[in-house]
């Protein structure tokens, strides 16, 4: 196949003479003519290429990519991290792909010094080990000591209280026991629904002076009990100095002392602990007996919740500094619709070696690039543009992807068909997926075509549906990977897939190549499976003449959300506006599906039909943007998506409609009348958002 429209704008860079400009215009006209009259693609050919894609899977190449990427720890902003940047870029270049790097200058955070000592009533002082046991060297290998990024520096001393998982319920239980954590250092067992940052935020609100955090882990899958979970405690996403705009080298930057910046960081220091060091504190505590259900593990030495018998002196010193981060991109220009983008993204930076998090995903991404390049040598060219994205500084709060999305908001809003994310691609057995609902059908179709890595005959779909009975696709309300800026800020339909869940070496020094081959994927067939699903999703979205987006699934899912919501609000609250807008979306979806079927039957015989397909595709692409609201979610205005996004109230059980969820949680603090009014307003906002999506899908002015 010939390649029209490949990078014609290169010639724009040199100063054209009038003759050149004239010739250039003529060439542009010819290219434009050619683009419109591009010979219809043969769907059989696309299928053939999809087959070649599947059959060119190779566990050995994926394994070698992972080995190279994980040879050193590569924390964002450090030299070894820059080496992974070059590695990924060189890989793309060697495949002959158009490659570029986009740097940003952003505020990162590193530890300088930390210590935790116990002071017993009898005068004994005990310094607790804070680093992972069994790791021979930290500094020489480049391993960063365990810390919480963006924790303030500080020296604190006080009584200690165990607050279980640190939820509001846990503090209420302590209150009943007569324990007030105000002025104390709290010790939190990480897990359950609270994020690290949320646990610190609640502790601060309760008057705690500092937070020590440990995780229980799973000894059967590697020596996690010695591992320590690093992580960020920053609120929100993206560079704190450039909220809402891109952190480019010479751009505007807020001062570190700006209140908007300070609001992003916790007010009290926190630090992660080893399981062993945490037990030394727990077994020393006085005070009331701990409830039985807080002592859920046989290894736990907890008996009393504190305070008493022991004080803790806890010092943390860190530095926040500007560092250059690098996103790497490889682009395969679409042959028919170069101005429509399908993005496959994964972050590259890691807390330590990053074998699971995130480089199992990077290895899969690099292998998809290898296989797409192979298809290109066999004559394939995607209909739409495919963009591989390798993000930096995700671990600090999705910084690389957020800055880039902020920089490219208009182009993404107008042209991004879908964003396909993979982060911790391989954690263990079992397929998991999250997506915006219009992509559900495509995920099911694709998983029917990829072999299950743990079975000789079954497909991923077979295994997935038998394991979970019904296959279950999560929704993407969480803010825990790079889909967040795409979906929550730009309204781009998104997918997130992975094998296995809750891996025990998360963010520890043991997330290494060795752990991967010993515990998660000895022969790299789960990597192959993720790459298969991910790459095939990309091929369909890039090649299918009519975009495989089904909004009937969205309407059905919204109806289910509405039913769940009705059990949370009292009977007097009318949900009729939601019902009406969901009906409208369902009927627009049905019309769009019928139209798609009709167009497919007619084939692409003339230009008018080609334009009609393009118009339908635009409506399918843009409908997701309807869920955005310029005002955003109250109190977190950067988050614009009213269906999926983070809720402020961590105890809320609603995993959708974040604005409604917050209004319900906060209504208890208002008079009944004001509380009801606030909830009603949020219900109307969601109803209007759904209606906007429906109108965009219909594509007609009201
Ligand atoms: C002080 O108390 C701690 C904890 O109960 C104990 O481990 C230590 O041996 C005691 N030291 C002395 C000198 O009694
Ligand atoms: C806990 O103690 C602080 C400081 O003494 C006090 O202000 C606060 O009201 C107490 N909280 C509860 C729930 O009693
Ligand atoms: C690839 O798979 C084969 C067959 O399962 C296996 O023998 C080989 O060791 C695998 N390669 C790697 C690097 O694990």
TrEMBL record:
Name the SUPFAM superfamilies for this protein: PA domain (SSF52025), Transferrin receptor-like dimerisation domain (SSF47672), Zn-dependent exopeptidases (SSF53187)
Domain (Peptidase M28): residue spans on this chain:
327-514
GO molecular-function terms, A-Z: carboxypeptidase activity; metal ion binding; metallocarboxypeptidase activity
Q: Which GO terms describe its cellular component?
A: endoplasmic reticulum membrane
Q: Which organism is it from?
A: Theobroma cacao (Cacao)
Protein name (Swiss-Prot/TrEMBL): glutamate carboxypeptidase II
Query: What family is reported?
Result: Belongs to the peptidase M28 family. M28B subfamily.
Where in the numbering of this chain does the Transferrin receptor-like dimerisation domain appear?
Answer: 574-698
**Superkingdom:** Eukaryota
Q: Which residues form the signal peptide?
A: none
- List, in alphabetical order, the GO biological process terms annotated in this UniProt record: proteolysis; regulation of meristem growth
Give the main location: endoplasmic reticulum
Q: What is its EC number?
A: 3.4.17.21
InterPro entries assigned to the protein according to its UniProt record, in alphabetical order: PA_dom_sf, Peptidase_M28, Peptidase_M28B, TFR-like_dimer_dom, TFR-like_dimer_dom_sf
Q: Which UniProt keywords apply?
A: Glycoprotein, Hydrolase, Membrane, Metal-binding, Metalloprotease, Protease, Receptor, Signal-anchor, Transmembrane, Transmembrane helix, Zinc
Q: Does the keyword Metal-binding apply?
A: yes
Q: Which reaction does it catalyse?
A: Release of an unsubstituted, C-terminal glutamyl residue, typically from Ac-Asp-Glu or folylpoly-gamma-glutamates
Q: What cofactor does its activity depend on?
A: Zn(2+)
């Amino acid at each position: 196949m010939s390649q029209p429209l490949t990078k014609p704008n290169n010639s724009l860079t040199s100063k054209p003479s009038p003759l050149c400009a004239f010739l250039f215009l003529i060439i542009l006209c010819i290219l434009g003519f050619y683009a419109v009259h591009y010979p219809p693609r043969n769907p059989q050919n696309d299928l053939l290429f999809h087959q070649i894609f599947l059959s060119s899977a190779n566990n050995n190449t994926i394994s070698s990519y992972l080995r190279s990427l994980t040879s050193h720890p590569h924390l964002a902003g450090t030299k070894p991290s820059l080496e992974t940047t070059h590695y990924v870029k060189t890989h793309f270049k060697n495949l002959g792909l158009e490659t570029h790097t986009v740097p940003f200058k952003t505020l990162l955070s590193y530890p300088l010094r930390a210590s935790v000592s116990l002071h017993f009533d009898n005068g004994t002082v005990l310094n607790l080990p804070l680093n992972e046991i069994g790791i021979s060297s930290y500094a020489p290998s480049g391993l960063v000591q365990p810390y919480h990024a963006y924790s303030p520096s500080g020296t604190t001393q006080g009584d200690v209280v165990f607050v279980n998982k640190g939820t509001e319920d846990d503090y209420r239980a302590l209150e009943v026991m007569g324990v007030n954590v105000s002025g104390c250092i709290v010790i939190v067992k990480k897990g359950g629904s609270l994020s690290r940052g949320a646990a610190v935020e609640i502790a601060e609100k309760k008057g705690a002076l500092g937070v020590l955090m440990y995780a229980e882990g799973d000894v059967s899958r590697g020596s996690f009990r010695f591992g320590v979970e690093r992580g960020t405690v920053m609120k929100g996403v993206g560079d704190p100095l450039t909220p809402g705009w891109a952190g480019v080298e010479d751009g505007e930057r807020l001062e570190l002392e700006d209140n908007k910046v300070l609001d992003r960081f916790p007010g009290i220091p926190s630090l992660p602990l080893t399981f062993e060091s945490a037990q030394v504190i727990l077994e020393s505590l006085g005070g009331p007996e701990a409830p039985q259900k807080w002592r859920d593990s046989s290894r736990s030495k907890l008996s009393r919740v504190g305070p008493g018998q022991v004080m803790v002196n806890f010092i943390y010193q860190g530095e926040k500094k500007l560092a250059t981060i690098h996103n790497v991109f490889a682009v395969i220009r679409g042959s028919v619709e170069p101005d429509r983008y399908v993005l496959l993204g994964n972050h590259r930076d890691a807390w330590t070696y990053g074998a699971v998090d995130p480089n199992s995903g990077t290895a899969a991404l690099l292998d998809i690039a290898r296989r797409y390049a192979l298809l290109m040598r066999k004559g394939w060219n995607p209909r739409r543009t495919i963009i591989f994205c390798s993000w930096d500084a995700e671990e600090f709060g999705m910084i690389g992807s957020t800055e880039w999305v902020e920089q490219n908001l208009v182009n993404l809003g107008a042209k991004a068909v879908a964003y396909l994310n993979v982060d911790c691609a391989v954690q263990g057995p079992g397929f998991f997926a999250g997506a915006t609902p219009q992509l559900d059908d495509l995920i099911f179709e694709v998983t029917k075509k990829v072999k299950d890595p743990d079975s000789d005959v079954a497909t991923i779909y077979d295994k997935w549906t038998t394991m979970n009975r019904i296959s279950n696709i999560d929704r993407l309300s969480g803010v825990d990977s790079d889909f967040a800026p795409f979906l929550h800020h730009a309204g781009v339909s998104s997918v997130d897939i992975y094998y296995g869940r809750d891996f025990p070496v998360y963010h520890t020094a043991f997330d290494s190549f060795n752990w991967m081959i010993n515990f998660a994927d000895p022969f790299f067939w789960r990597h192959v499976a993720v790459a298969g699903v991910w790459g095939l999703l990309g091929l369909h979205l890039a090649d299918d003449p009519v975009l495989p987006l089904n909004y009937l699934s969205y309407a059905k899912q919204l109806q289910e959300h509405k039913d769940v919501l009705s059990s949370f609000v009292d009977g007097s609250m009318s949900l009729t506006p939601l019902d009406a807008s969901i009906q409208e979306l369902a009927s627009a979806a049905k019309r769009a599906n019928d139209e798609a079927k009709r167009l497919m039957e007619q084939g692409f015989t003339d230009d008018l039909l080609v334009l009609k397909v393009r118009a339908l595709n635009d409506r399918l692409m843009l409908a997701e943007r309807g869920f955005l609201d310029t005002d955003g979610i109250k109190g977190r205005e950067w988050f614009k998506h009213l269906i999926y996004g983070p809720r402020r109230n961590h105890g809320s059980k609603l995993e959708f409609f974040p604005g409604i969820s917050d209004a319900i949680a906060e209504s208890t603090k208002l008079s009944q009348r004001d509380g009801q009014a606030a909830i009603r307003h949020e219900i109307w906002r969601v109803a209007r958002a759904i209606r906007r999506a429906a109108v965009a899908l219909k594509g007609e002015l009201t």
